[in-house]
Amino acid sequence: MGATAFAYSKRLFEIAAYGLSAMFLALYMMIDRDRLRGGLYALVPRTQHIRLSRIMLNLETIIGAYIRGQLVTCLLIGAFTFILLTACGVENAMALAVFAAIADVLPYVGAILSIVPAVIAALGHGTTTAVIVLVAMLVYEEFESRVLIPQIYGRALRLPSSVVFFALMVGGTLMGLLGALLALPVAATIMMLIEELRVDLPGEQEQEADTLLRARDGLEEEEYERRTEGVAAEQAAAIAVEISVERRKEGLRIDAPP
């Protein structure tokens, strides 16, 4: 048990280190965003700048949706834990609820980390109370994994429920905790790239909407080349983003209900 706990503690430390590194990297990218974006666009042929700008915007949307999904699921399990422990008369219900919310970020292991402290705290009020807390937490974890995660992340990342289950299973099997943690945004990114790069999948035939999208892509690329003739990469990147944002706004207006 000691060796297993030490192994998990090392893995948790690695995940925390990766998370902090990602936060600082994101901070640096926000501070020097225009220059970094200009350097990226300088490495890509200008004929692909419009497509690159759409991909970058979609990546920002995917990351934001994934973070919002994490916040929602963490808040829900925190609220459930607090209500359950308060109803059972367990002390320090708020602290245990906050711990459960933080632990819920970790797939698979987070469930164990959130349940064990709550059950141990409930033991002070008798075996019956501990059993009630254990069963209630297990039922909630099952409900979260079967219903909440597919619904919340599927809607936020525009992924079917079957893809959510498959991505979590494959990510956890291949790369453990880190793979399960990154499975959903990676799956959403892959599907987005297939759509944005206009990849023809086996068994699919091009529809009229696909033909219109390709024509629209050509018009935008022509406009971009006209507006960026003789312009530096950093300014060209800003123009590409502007064109892509306008296209997204038009798409939202078209999709909006009357």
Secondary-structure topology with pairs:
Elements: H1 2-31, H2 33-43, H3 49-87, H4 93-103, H5 109-123, H6 127-157, H7 161-196, H8 208-227, H9 233-255
Task: Summarize the biggest pleated sheet.
Answer: none
Taken in chain order, the helices and strands follow as: HHHHHHHHH
Instruction: Label the overall shape.
Output: elongated
Mean pLDDT: 78
Distance between the termini: 60 Å
User: Counting H and I runs of at least 4 residues, what is the number of helices?
Assistant: 9
What percentage of residues falls in helices of 4 or more residues? over 70%
Instruction: Give unreliable regions as ranges.
Output: 253-258
How many runs of DSSP E, i.e. beta strands?
0
Strand content: under 5%
The total number of structural domains is: 1
Helix and strand composition category? mainly alpha
How large is the radius of gyration? Answer: 23 Å
TL;DR of this structure?
The chain has 258 residues and is mainly α.
